[in-house]
Design goal:
Length: about 450
């Protein structure tokens, strides 16, 4: 068969494609932008009709526009849903289940706690995913699809021998790097042309900008950047416009980082690993970001087990990672995923980059947060955490709030407490010092 004949032989409707997935299947879906809407809707119809039983679906940051059908609350007892990182859909469903009359009812989506760089191994080795659905770019002349916005765990799962069902969308950019799959490895393909889901940048406020300015002052020309999700990392990017020769090695390629590339601030000339290339594992944002990704030879998409591996991150000299947290205790431990008694996000790649950046020659890991939450009524720096430890106190390096920065390295517990109290909101400092003395830290 020619490449075109092979493509045509595997092309079918979404309903025909999901019919290939058997009862009891362990199904993984593409992350975020690559979550395939036509396949997800057809899968939901099949489950609702009782034609697919005892299946499990693994997803990460599933967007509402694409995933609402298969993650609908009424299907919770017919297909098991396991989240690798909660997004808005899981949070909304969790809030819904908490209001049910049955107080013993659990969450509609379970969480699998796992560092981002270990997800490929978890899916292929420990879970044994047998079906993978994802969105890809149109095929090139050599028979390859690009995974586009999402190489992350998709490449490892797609190459593991799983049943690979792809949704070919002309809106998905053709991205360069180690992110290609061949039509011969595809079990079925579905053509579906719809706009990609977009995630607008959160509006920044004065507190975000204050934190961004503090962090930007720590960045030297020639540093290599990783930025997390949210208004604070965006504020850091905005404050870096006067810098030069910066590089990028990041899990998420965001509009903020792209703005630095387009302004000439990032040229990757000083990078010790993959010089000249901006390395990332997934991208999420607006249409200009997706346009920038398409056929751009300066970008290098690679799988997350490589990009997020701490020993790989550490090969970038002057690595600087910036991530946000929800809550810090007085020893420097971070809860970055749990709020108000519920799972809010997930483990993600925070600890991957905290460890990798600190191990870099001249590297620094920064955890940033507003000093308060709930319109100033709650301190984010607390005597003890309300949720799980996402980043242990032994790993945290520099903590930044709008009131300054605190370096945790080389400090005793008492010294850490004093440093963190000094960057807490003034309204809570006395209470924090009192709590530290009650806990015999001070």
């Amino acid at each position: 068969m020619t490449i075109k004949e092979l493509y045509d032989a595997k092309r079918m409707s979404a309903q025909q494609a999901v019919a290939l997935i058997p009862d009891g299947a362990q199904i993984a879906a593409g992350l975020a932008v690559s979550f395939p809407p036509a396949l997800a809707a057809a899968l939901a119809d099949r489950v609702r009709a009782g034609a697919l039983r005892d299946a499990t679906l693994y997803a990460m940051l599933a967007p509402a526009a694409s995933a609402a059908a298969i993650l609908a609350p009424d299907l919770a007892d017919r297909i098991r849903r396991i989240s690798l990182f909660h997004g808005g859909v899981e949070r909304a469903n969790d809030a819904l289940s908490a209001t049910e009359s049955d107080p013993s009812s659990g969450p509609l989506a379970e969480l699998l706690p796992v560092p981002f760089h270990q997800i490929p191994r978890a899916l292929t080795e420990h879970i044994g995913v047998d079906s993978f659905i994802t969105t890809v770019s149109p095929m090139d002349a050599n028979g390859y699809f690009s995974l586009g916005t999402d190489t992350d765990y998709a490449l490892a799962v797609a190459r593991s021998g799983t049943r690979l069902v792809v949704e070919v969308n002309p809106a998905m950019p053709y991205v360069h790097g180690d992110c290609l799959i061949h039509v011969s490895d595809v079990a079925a393909l579905v053509e579906h042309h719809v706009p990609l889901c977009q995630t607008p940048s959160l509006p920044r406020n004065a507190t975000d900008d204050a934190i961004g300015a503090i962090i930007a002052a720590m960045v030297e020309d020639g540093a290599c950047l990783q930025m997390g999700i949210g208004a604070v990392p965006d504020a850091v990017c905005a404050a870096l416009m006067s810098h030069r020769r910066l590089g990028i090695h990041t899990e998420l390629l965001s509009p903020g980082l792209v703005s630095l590339i387009q302004a000439g601030v990032v040229d990757n000339s000083a990078k010790s690993l993959h010089p000249g290339k901006s390395v990332f594992t997934f991208a999420m944002g607006d249409q200009p970001l997706y346009d920038f990704l398409h056929d751009n030879p300066t970008l290098d998409a690679r799988p997350v087990e490589y990009v997020n591996a701490p020993h790989v991150i550490a090969q970038n000299d002057a690595m600087l990672s910036v991530n946000a947290t929800l809550q810090l205790d007085l020893s420097g431990a971070c809860n970055s995923e749990f709020v108000n008694g519920r799972q809010y996000s997930g483990t993600g790649g925070q600890l991957d980059f905290v460890r990798g950046a600190y191990a870099s020659k001249g590297g620094r890991s920064i955890i940033a947060c507003h000093a308060t939450a709930a319109k100033g009524t709650i301190s984010r720096i607390v005597p003890w955490l309300d949720g799980p430890v996402t980043t242990p106190r032994t790993d945290t390096h520099i903590i930044v709030t709008e009131f300054g920065s605190a370096d945790m390295k080389g400090k005793s517990l008492a010294d850490r407490a004093r440093a963190l109290i000094a960057i807490a909101h003034p309204a809570f400092r006395d209470d924090l010092e009192r709590a530290a003395r009650e806990r015999r830290i001070l």
